[in-house]
Design a protein that fits this description.
The chain is of the alpha+beta class. It has eight helices and nine strands.
Length: 269
């Protein structure tokens, strides 16, 4: 959704550098990124990072919080308030901000208990000057919000969580067909069959929900409410499925040997 000039300057650099990680800075200390589509914060609420147009530059001041890839990204798409007199949907815009821009710095790096390969951090903006050429798409306000809704971020996250859930379920089925207890493989015990069935149902429901959301976004247009609901459902399903698979594995579920069963580090942690 960038201008032709923005695409030439940044997409080529991204393609040529395997370490050109991107970050999207939306969430702030006092607000999350979950209000697009069903709540439009009025002036004085919601996003507070300010972007003021001064001559041929926008000046950004404020802070972002829990930004994925914050410590490692080379380029950020930053959401900021360009018009404080309008509701958030029309009053915010997005800017392309390289990591080495003067006034921009990384704050606290959040020490999470899991998902550690996806680091989150605070971003601090102290009179960060962004040229007007780096206003994403060359437009302020609503057009910029349309871009955000089309990114499919929640669809991507839903797919990630279900991938972990599917790996956990497949590992549990494999283990149940190999582990012998009571004179037979445990898959033949009715209690184990029921446990697996309880994991299978939300996995398939989540996959159907995900496909429907992706199809709708592709052929009907962005639907923030549906995408938000899909993310919540798939995340909760993945949590329950991975915990259920871990419990079915018993003692093995709490050891490093889980990795050899292809559940992956997400379940180990």
């Amino acid at each position: 959704m960038g201008t032709e000039d923005q695409q030439k300057r940044y997409l080529l650099a991204f393609l040529e550098d395997d370490e050109f990680v991107l970050g999207q800075a939306i969430t702030e200390p006092d607000m999350g990124s979950d209000n697009s589509g069903y709540y439009d914060p009025p002036p004085g609420e919601g996003l507070m990072l300010r972007a003021e147009l001064k001559g041929d530059h926008y000046v950004l001041n404020g802070m972002k919080h829990m930004v994925a890839n914050g410590p490692v990204a080379k380029l950020f798409i930053v959401t900021a308030r360009t018009d404080t007199t309008k509701n958030q949907f029309e009053g915010v815009s997005r800017f392309i901000v390289p990591k080495d821009t003067p006034g921009f710095s990384i704050g606290n790096i959040h020490d999470k208990i899991g998902f550690r390969a996806y680091p989150n951090a605070e971003l601090i903006f102290d009179n960060v000057r962004v040229p007007v050429e780096d206003l994403l798409g060359g437009k302020e306000g609503k057009e910029s919000e349309e871009w955000y809704m089309r990114t499919g971020a929640n669809i991507e996250l839903s797919a990630h969580t279900l991938a972990v859930a599917r790996a956990a379920f497949d590992a549990a089925v494999k283990f149940a067909n190999e582990r012998v207890q009571g004179g037979k493989v445990i898959i033949k015990h009715q209690a184990v069959q029921k446990a697996l069935a309880d994991l299978y149902v939300p996995l398939q429901a989540g996959r159907t929900f995900l496909w429907r959301t992706a199809w709708t976004s592709t052929y009907k247009g962005p639907n923030a409410l549906l995408a938000n609901a899909c993310k919540v459902f798939c995340a909760e399903a993945a949590l329950n499925i991975t915990i259920g698979a871990k419990e079915l594995l018993g003692g093995v579920g709490g050891t490093q040997s889980v990795a050899s069963l292809k559940i992956g580090k997400a379940l180990v942690s």
